[in-house]
Predict the structure of Arrestin domain-containing A-like.
Amino acid sequence: MTLDVRKMLFIYRISADAPHRGRYRYRTVYLWICSPTSAKDIKLKLKGYEKCEWEYTKQVSREGPDGTTEWDTVQGKVKGDKTFFKTEFKLVEYHDGIPIGHYAYPFQYTLQQEIPGSFRMKGKTDHSNSNEWEGNVKYKVKAAMEARDGKLKVTQPLVIRTDARTQVNQSETHEKEGTVRLCCCIPRGTVKLQARLDSNVYEAGSTARIHVNVDNDSSVDIDHFVLKLMQVIHLQGKDDDSHSERRVSLTDTVCESKYDGCKSGDKKECDIELVLKTGDGHEIQPTTKGGHIKCTYHIDIEMQVSWCPDIEIHAPIILTAPSNNWWQQWAAPQWLVNCQPVPIQGPCAVPQPVMDSHTFSNIPGFGPPL
């Protein structure tokens, strides 16, 4: 018998992937046995981990034959990884083999509190266009059924969103002041910059709104100021990695906008916006803070003033992943409606009151037909 993944095994997400660690999540494994099989059980695997690696190039000195210093180019790769959790258990077992039919096996699980949000990104390092880096914070659930004549398995990602509920601040104001000095010593007035973000937590792709006040009490005109979204990624190798290349920091300008400045002696007050997405339409990865991978963001307001150090405000923000609309657009395979719920035993068993509640309403095999 040939096992067909597309027709016989499926994992259905019932509760949305959300930032609320510690709360129960619900899913259902659907199975369609078309012909007799020797398989007796379905195994379930849950795994969460982070993994990163990057290449580096450095110059190493050595003493040449004539006593002079010679330099060699050395290339290498650094890796770092950590497993947050990894568990495997039997979801259901049939002593005489799984009979022909359509089945739905609901299960529940929880995730530990202190795990970083999902993340996936790769690119070039700052040091060389030929050196690459890659980082992943990944979570997944896999169901598998093994018989003498083959193995059937399906894997579904778990999207863990950064939990920023306790970190929202909608009233923080940032200020910076600079003094204009002719020939580095003769004062020519001051420039004050004040900015207030409408929030410090944003969803990737949304729009940040900033209220800006400029007081140009100096003798020079300010042509413009720039608003930027900056991304900072820190990668760290294994703890037993002793060489100096075990850490790398990568800073990138994700997007920016330019606005008119302020004339000498004037004041300016305005509301400006920054759309938090790249110009080429690539997905912006969310904030995450793992042991080997950290991705943070800040919104910068930069003002270049003649005869004065640049006046800059760096406002840290948290960027969360956008809502996953895939499930809203998804249509259930026709065979799912024929599946009958089969209660499981053990810690992953879903209590009957939950299966009878709105949580499982409109779920194939449980509530009204989709």
